[in-house]
Design a protein that fits this description.
CATH superfamily: Metallo-dependent phosphatases
Low-confidence stretches: 297-304
Number of strands: 12
Strand content: 15-25%
Helix content: 25-40%
Number of helices: 9
Shape: globular
Bound molecules: fe (ii) ion
CATH architecture: 4-Layer Sandwich
């Protein structure tokens, strides 16, 4: 049994999903027809000291939080992997950083594999659930349904798929956030037998079919510390994993620290990528397919 100290529960209490959603529902734009929000990818500092020493750039999470909160955005969704491993000590450090960076705008979380008791292999999500609440949830804002789906155990179960179908039974625009890309997209997967490290396998085909049938406008994902876009089954999948976690010297031009800002109106979705080095660019309309995994030369050690 995981015993969570009262002090840690208190630290996390203001960031609990239900409290953040209450905060969001009180904002003036709740009944409007336009919403702007930020999507921030992986921020965990790596559990291997050598990675931390060689590849980490301290302060990127803090910088990006500060920058995005200075903009007129309604809320932020962090796509998971906030800690390197879901231990009490790691959550305590992260919550301290978050409290320093947070300015009061709703901040919602997605659970990542690193937020579990073990990032890979057999694990549980008791600590995340105790601190933040349910890992599968949805909310409506400005006529848009936002669905957060837990793919942190590298699978989506049948029960989750049934729930997802119901959650997407909504007449308006639909947006999905999940930590891992479905593996069959093949853009961000691993190598050979460790292919699954780059995406979730169980339920991935059904997931793609469901979001396609429901005409979901976007699936936002993290897990791989890079940026990428792929259109699949009429749905645009956007990888935004550059929240502050270590970048590896792979030579891939799509590996950079960044966050997204998204504006949704009844007729359009406008997305801008804000890189940590100050560049801002829009995600183009039309069909976008980034290089495949093989072309990107991604290495397995980037995916642990
Ligand atoms: Fe991950």
């Amino acid at each position: 049994m995981t015993v969570v100290p009262e002090s840690l529960i208190l630290m996390a209490s203001r960031f609990r999903t239900e409290r953040q959603l209450r905060r969001l529902s009180r904002l003036p734009g709740a009944s409007g027809d336009k919403v702007s929000f930020a999507v921030l990818g992986d921020v965990e500092p790596s559990r291997f000291w050598i990675y931390r020493k060689l590849f980490n750039r301290e302060g990127v999470f803090h910088d990006q939080m500060h920058e995005l909160q200075a903009q007129p955005l309604t809320f932020t969704v962090q796509l998971g992997d906030m800690v390197s491993k879901g231990t009490r000590a790691n959550y305590e450090i992260f919550l301290r950083h978050l409290r320093r960076a947070w300015t009061g705008r709703p901040y919602l979380t997605v659970i990542g594999n690193h937020d579990r008791s073990q990032p890979n292999g057999k694990s549980h999500s008791t600590l995340y659930r105790t601190l933040f609440g349910r890992p599968n949830y949805f909310f409506d804002h400005a006529g848009v349904r936002f669905v957060v789906l837990d793919s942190s155990y590298k699978r989506v179960t049948r029960t989750q798929l049934r729930w997802l179908k119901l959650a997407l039974d909504f007449p308006g625009r639909k947006i999905v956030f999940t930590h891992m890309p479905p593996v069959q997209l093949s853009l961000w997967g691993g190598v050979g037998k460790v292919h699954e490290l780059g995406g979730f396998i169980g339920g991935s085909r059904e997931f793609a079919e469901i979001v396609s049938a429901a005409k979901v406008s976007r699936v936002y994902m993290g897990h791989v510390h890079a940026f990428g876009v792929q259109d699949h089954g009429g749905v645009r999948y956007v990888l935004t994993g550059g929240g502050g976690s270590a970048l590896f010297p792979s030579g891939n031009v799509d590996s950079f620290h960044h966050y997204l800002t998204v504006e949704i109106t009844p007729s359009a979705i406008r997305e801008r990528v804000h890189s940590h080095d100050g560049k801002v660019f829009s995600i183009p309309g039309g069909l976008v397919i980034l290089p495949t995994h093989d072309e990107r030369k991604r290495r397995w050690w980037e995916l642990v």
